[in-house]
Specification:
67% of the residues lie in helices and 4% in strands. With 227 residues, the protein is mostly helical. A three-stranded antiparallel sheet has the order 1-3-2.
C-alpha cells in the first residue's frame, strides 16, 4: 500500500524524486496548508525543467497533499473545520474495514514491529510521535491487498496530517496518554486474533481526534489564505 501514483518513464524518476522531497517537507510542516508551491522555484532548486515538477505535483495531488487549480498554480492542501470533520468521519468508517482485511495477514514479526513502534511513541516528542504513529498504523494495513481502499486511506491521512499535528502537539502539552493506551490495546487485540475488537479500538481512536479537533476551531481559522 504505497499511495503513490505511477508516472510515465520519461521524467518519471526525476518527478518521483521531487515528489519524495516535497512530500517529506509537507508532512514535517515546512510547507503549511495554503502555502503556494511555485513550479519555477522547484525547477530551479532541483536543477530541472518544469516537466518533472509537474509530474511531482500530479503525484502529490493524487495523494491529497497538493491542490492544483488550472491556469492558477498549486498549493499545499488545506481544510476547513467542516471538511476535516467529514474526512475524519470517513476515516472512522473505512480504516476499521481496511484493518479487518489486513489483520489475519499480520505475521509475528509484523506484530513485534507494532509493539516496538508503540513503545517508541511513548517516549517521543510530538514530531517523532507523528512519524512513528504514521508508520504504526500503515504497518497494520500493509498486508491488505486492495483495489482502492489502501490508496484512499493514504489520501485521508495526508489531507488531515497538518491538523493531526496540532492535536498531537496539544496532547503532548497536557500529557494525555490516551493514544498510547489505544495503541497497546490495538496490538493486544491483533495478537489475540480478535480483528473485531481491533477495529473497535481503531474507530474510537480516530473519533477521539475528531472530537478534540472540533473543540479547537482556531486551528482552522488561523490557516493562511490560498492565493
Amino acid at each position: 500500500m504505497t499511495g503513490l501514483l505511477r508516472v510515465p518513464r520519461d521524467h518519471g524518476s526525476a518527478g518521483a524524486g521531487i515528489a519524495d522531497t516535497l512530500r517529506d517537507e509537507i508532512l514535517r510542516g515546512i510547507h503549511p496548508p495554503g502555502a503556494r508551491i511555485r513550479q519555477e522555484d522547484l525547477a530551479t532548486r532541483h536543477t530541472t525543467s518544469r516537466i518533472p515538477v509537474r509530474e511531482a505535483l500530479r503525484i502529490l495531488e493524487a495523494e491529497g497533499l497538493v491542490t492544483r487549480v488550472a491556469n492558477a498554480g498549486a498549493w499545499v492542501s488545506r481544510l476547513t473545520l467542516d471538511e476535516c470533520q467529514e474526512l475524519y468521519l470517513v476515516r472512522e468508517r473505512v480504516e476499521p474495514v481496511l484493518l479487518a482485511m489486513s489483520a489475519p495477514l499480520l505475521s509475528t514479526a509484523d506484530l513485534d514491529l507494532l509493539d516496538d513502534l508503540a513503545e517508541r511513541m511513548e517516549d517521543a516528542d510530538a514530531e517523532d510521535f507523528l512519524r512513528h504513529d504514521r508508520e504504526f498504523h500503515f504497518a497494520t494495513y500493509a498486508p491488505a491487498r486492495t483495489v482502492m481502499l489502501g490508496d484512499t486511506v493514504v489520501g485521508l491521512w495526508n489531507r488531515t496530517h497538518h491538523y493531526r499535528r496540532a492535536f498531537v502537539t496539544a496532547a503532548h502539552a497536557r500529557h494525555d496518554d490516551a493514544a498510547h493506551h489505544d495503541h497497546r490495546l490495538l496490538v493486544a487485540a491483533l495478537r489475540r486474533g480478535d480483528a473485531d475488537e481491533a477495529a473497535h479500538v481503531l474507530e474510537r481512536h480516530i473519533r477521539r481526534t475528531r472530537i478534540e479537533l472540533e473543540r479547537h476551531p482556531e486551528i482552522f481559522a488561523n490557516e493562511p489564505p490560498v492565493r
